[in-house]
Design brief:
Mean pLDDT: 92
Shape: globular
CATH architecture: Alpha-Beta Complex
Distance between the termini: 19 Å
Number of strands: 15
Strand order of the largest sheet: 7-4-1-8
Low-confidence stretches: none
CATH superfamily: Spore Coat Polysaccharide Biosynthesis Protein SpsA, Chain A
Order of helices and strands: EHEEHEHEEEHEEHEEEEHEEH
Structural class: alpha/beta
Number of helices: 7
Strand content: 25-35%
Number of domains: 1
Largest sheet: 4 strands, parallel
CATH class: Alpha Beta
């Protein structure tokens, strides 16, 4: 089964970093968050990946071009004029980088990259969120209900502390620092039947609006609840928090 990673947006909410490179290439530790997402997939045996590129796509292509040389053993035979790359320890990835347009919306990117899909379900995800999500369980869940779209539902950590006030004098009855939200939200990990791609009209289609809304109305959207850890990298603050976790060896998403 193929994984599709949406990596073409402008990343305007983290412009401190994305003015220089695409948001999925912003590093957490020494490696871009795109690598972290791919490592989660590889741990579950999902090694066939489609990367939907757009903004600063050349940066992503150059990174993949040099990845093997940076991380493998290399023999340079100057007498024979040959170079041999020994793929010791290199992930068994097969990566297709697709030019999906600079201004294309999320749904349009999926539709443009669909020509590289097979007839089986595929797993799109955003290029800026990590978690200890078991995608294989989502795939099994998807196959069990026979719908067109499975969305992973998550409960994010609240941005601020929550207080409960007494009605009479506004005394603080309780305080909890950044609890988990009560409601589930879209966690950005999907399992999609190819039939759902037909719900995407073109480049201007936002996946989360028209297609997902229509699929929900028709009863073809179901949610697989994930009560574990999940976090998006929306802002510079998020990057700093994730990087601190990584540097302290406390990264919950490091399942490999």
């Amino acid at each position: 089964m193929k994984v599709m990673i949406l990596a073409g947006g402008f990343g305007s909410r983290i412009s401190e970093e994305s003015t220089l490179r695409p948001k999925p290439m912003v590093e957490i530790g020494p490696m871009p968050i795109l690598w972290h997402i791919m490592k989660i997939d590889a741990h579950l045996g999902l090694n066939d990946l489609i990367i939907c590129c757009g903004y600063k796509s050349d940066y992503i292509k150059e990174w993949f071009t040099n990845y093997r040389l940076r991380h493998a053993d290399v023999t340079f035979d100057f007498r024979a004029g040959a170079t041999e790359v020994h793929t010791n320890g290199i992930e068994p990835w097969r990566v297709t980088l697709v030019e999906t347009g600079i201004n294309t919306m999320t749904g349009g990117r999926i539709k443009r990259a669909a020509k590289y899909l097979d007839d089986e379900p595929f797993c799109p995800t955003y290029g800026d969120g990590v978690g200890n999500i078991d995608i294989k369980k989502s795939i099994e869940f998807h196959k069990s209900h026979g719908k067109y779209l499975t969305m992973t539902a998550v409960k994010p950590e609240a941005r601020f502390g929550v207080i409960q006030l007494e009605k009479d004098d506004n005394r603080v009855h309780s305080f909890k620092e950044k609890p988990r939200e009560a409601a589930y939200i879209n966690g950005g990990y999907f399992v999609v039947d190819p039939k759902a791609v037909d719900y995407i009209e073109g480049d201007e289609t936002v996946w989360e609006l028209g297609p997902m809304e229509k699929l929900a109305e028709e009863g073809h959207l179901v949610a697989n609840k994930h009560d574990g850890w999940w976090m998006p990298m929306d802002t510079l603050r998020d990057k700093i928090v994730l990087e601190k976790m990584w540097n302290e060896n406390k990264a919950p998403w490091k399942v490999w």
